[in-house]
Design brief:
Immunoglobulin-like, 5-stranded mixed β-sheet, 12 helices, 19 strands
């Protein structure tokens, strides 16, 4: 009798504890800001068009798993146990390193130099950047391109011992070699590795560089532009007031504070229009007493560098929008910054600008059937966007130029594979093309001829 009673009490206690997260869910709510992501909303029995939602139970399962009471406290406890005792991470997006350092999981391939871009992909990116540079020059603007290194590219010593770098060149090294001597390439990895500082240039528990690292990057970019960099004031100092994005992913209930670096310089620039936060898609600034204008395409690494850049130009615009909108550039400085792990995106989305006209009359191309060719066109504001994918038989070697003829005019295309527009999001291809031409008329794929010029001088024509 006593044993049965104990079993029943134990079972009741166990079931009661299991029911607590569900029972208190309406009272103890999860904080999505701490996890740096949008949590799912409660599912509805009917869809927007009034039909029965047959995915209700699977949607509710996802909703419950993200919202049950004390979820973040339990996730944090799990994260601390695994990272402190086992040296592992409960989240595949976070790598637990040595000495309290955390790294972003998506940077592993770059760190190990595996699954790197093909030589053709690297040359595609170079071709695209060359075209952007030429467009800026034609519009009296100076172009600078830079890659913000992954944290483990600058601080590899705190990566776990089982992550062993190979001697093969990575995407950064491949692209740097291709762009050497281009005149617009800003080697940020060399800058940061050579920076003399007793304070780390990156946060220990965050993906990004800190203010000191951003300032070093700013100074190098300004040197490339031939302009004086922003003042750093009289001293640098630190405060533990940064919530690391990686720490928030595995310790969401903690107020995980990382060290941020500051200087005592008083900024004088101001924001134009509605400003919410440094991660806004578009931010415009003005600074009295300064000259020149800046257009900077940037990602999240651009947040820390923004104040220094804004302080040096009378007018500046910082854009996170993709594709890059280059139409309308007229003088000034144009800076493109992208993080190392996203280098491959530079052969995905063609910049919105007038495609340069080209003369290919000297070419004598061989006509091919192009059965695997995909050509699509769509109106995009004042432009017609032409994009698609070409067959492998049209390419040879690792360097090819693509020309698109419409009527009597021929244009040079970007070597870009528009994965989202082609309903193949997440896929990659080294055989894509994309361009924008200004036209009031609609253009059909039947009106288009494509010529591919390979590095050996051989040309192919696809009708």
């Amino acid at each position: 009798m006593k044993k049965n009673l104990l079993y029943r009490l134990y079972s009741a206690a166990f079931i009661g504890i299991c029911l607590v997260p569900a029972a208190l869910m309406p009272i103890v709510k999860a904080d999505s800001d701490k996890e740096k992501r949008e949590l799912s909303s409660a599912p509805k029995i009917k869809t927007e068009d009034g039909k029965i939602n047959f995915n209700f139970f699977s949607d509710f399962e996802i909703y419950f798993s993200e919202h049950f009471a004390f979820r973040q406290q339990l996730v944090t406890a799990d994260g601390r146990i695994k990272s402190s005792i086992l040296g592992t991470s409960p989240n595949s997006d976070v790598i637990v390193g040595k000495n309290g350092w955390l790294y972003y999981g998506e940077t592993v391939d770059d760190f190990l130099n595996i699954n790197t871009l093909s030589d053709r992909a690297v040359n595609n990116i170079k071709n695209n950047l060359d075209m952007m540079n030429a467009y800026c020059q034609q519009n009296n603007a100076q172009f600078v391109f830079t890659v913000a290194p992954n944290k483990n590219s600058i601080y590899p010593e705190n990566m776990p011992f089982n992550y062993i770098e190979s001697d093969n060149p990575g995407n950064y090294e491949k692209l740097a070699a291709a762009l050497s001597g281009s005149g617009y390439w800003c080697d940020m990895k060399e800058t940061l590795l050579n920076a003399s500082s007793s304070i780390p240039l990156y946060h220990k528990t965050d993906t990004h560089w800190n203010n000191l690292g951003a300032y070093a990057g700013h100074s190098r970019i300004m040197a490339m532009l031939g302009k004086e960099s922003c003042s750093a004031g009289s001293r640098w100092f630190t405060r533990d007031d940064r919530l690391g994005d990686l720490a928030a992913m595995i310790y969401p209930a903690e107020k995980a504070k990382d060290t941020q670096v500051y200087n005592d310089y008083e900024f004088t620039y101001s924001y134009l229009g509605r400003f919410r936060a440094l991660d806004d898609i578009s931010i415009k600034t003005v600074c009295e007493g300064k000259d020149g204008n800046l257009l900077m395409y940037r990602d999240s690494y651009g947040e820390a560098i923004l104040p220094y850049m804004a302080e040096c130009f009378s007018e500046a615009e910082f854009s996170r929008a993709v594709p890059y909108r280059m139409n309308g550039i007229n003088g000034g400085a144009v800076v493109l910054e992208i993080v190392e792990r996203n280098i491959g995106n530079l052969q995905k989305y063609a910049p919105v600008m007038n495609a340069p006209e080209a003369d290919i009359s000297v070419l004598v191309p061989e006509e091919i059937s192009g059965k695997e060719t995909v050509i699509r066109t769509e109106k995009s504001g004042v432009f017609v966007h032409i994009y698609g994918e070409l067959p492998e038989e049209a390419f040879s070697g690792s360097n090819s130029e693509i020309f698109v003829s419409v009527g009597e005019k021929t244009y040079k295309a970007f070597n870009c594979f528009e994965d989202k527009l082609l309903e193949r999001e997440g896929e990659t291809s080294d055989r894509g093309f994309s361009l924008y031409i200004q036209s009031e008329d609609e253009i059909s794929s039947d009106d288009i001829m494509i010529t591919i010029l390979n590095e050996n001088g051989k040309a192919f024509l696809i009708k």
